[in-house]
Design a protein that fits this description.
Elements lengths: L3 E3 L5 E3 L29 H27 L4 H13 L1 H14 L2 H5 L4 H12 L15 H12 L23 H14 L4 H12 L6 H8 L1 E2 L7 E3 L2 E2 L6 E3 L1 H22 L3 H13 L7 H10 L9 H15 L12
Antiparallel strand pairs: 1-2, 3-6, 4-5
Helix pairs in contact: 1-10, 1-13, 2-3, 2-8, 2-10, 5-6, 5-7, 9-10, 10-11, 12-13
Amino acid sequence: CNCATVLRSGRQVPVLCLAKALRHQAFLLPYTLPCFPILNHMDTKTLAKVLVTAGEQRFRQKAERFRTELKQERAGQVLFRGIMRALGYAKNTHSFLELADRIPLSSIQSREGLAMKQALLLGTAGLLPSQRRQAESGRREEVQELERIWQSADRKAETMKESDWNLSHIYPNNSPVRRIIAQSYLLDRYCDRRLLAGILQLVKDTRLSGGHSVLQNGLTVVGDGYWRDHFDFGVTSRTKISVLLGHSKAGEIAVNVVLPFAFSWGELVDEKQLTDHAMQLYRSYPRLPENCLTRHMVRQLRLEEVSDFTACQQQGLIHIFTSYCREGRCSQCPLVR
């Protein structure tokens, strides 16, 4: 399992799944768990309700974290950091958060133009060609323009280094450079209303019945020019890869960031209609692509034949894993009780 248990001290302890390695030790196999297979002692309707409840608990935990941050920072910056965290994946989460703190939303939104936003973000990240040892100098006009803007920009933040980023063993389309470029497009898209107002209006405009594509499309990013065929500076693709932020990642950001943020913001400003709408959108959001945790739970519970999960129920599987399975709290697990 590609995850870790976090101790009270904050230190992470790796978790190793021993089921396959110890397959000859029958008492240690998954089928000795009280929840295996779950459908032998729980009907599908009850399971669906349990997972929805667990998914809502996970949603409220995220909303509570946003609520805590909203008491300490401006709302736009909290939303910006949440999206940046989601763009970082596991290997670059802390780096994206560091970048969001070094060049906050207010200092980017005040600058006009997409190229300016890209130059400021990439330059502060230390990922422009001139700042990196192995990157090509970049002869394309778009790259030279980014370098010129960065050199002439009035900047105050201390820049990060290339070594602050994990650039190896990453799917090319998920490279930090492409994700930073994707963020620049989002900021430019909502530059008139600003990110906070634009995203909140996007949530309000999304209908409950079949309207989730509106929210998803509002977060999807299609690049042009240099980024139609480049994974990174000097790293080209044989085919056009114009999608910088696809539907699957946009859906993850909607479920994990935008909706719980909108929920907490609605509570903060006493806008009950927004709070209720965000929760209802979350409950009905369609299934997202599987990740390592949902795949693990499906195998553990023997749910391979169940294919009609919602995103909320998938989040419920993750909540049960992190709150009970990983902590060895089988006797308190809602699936057992």
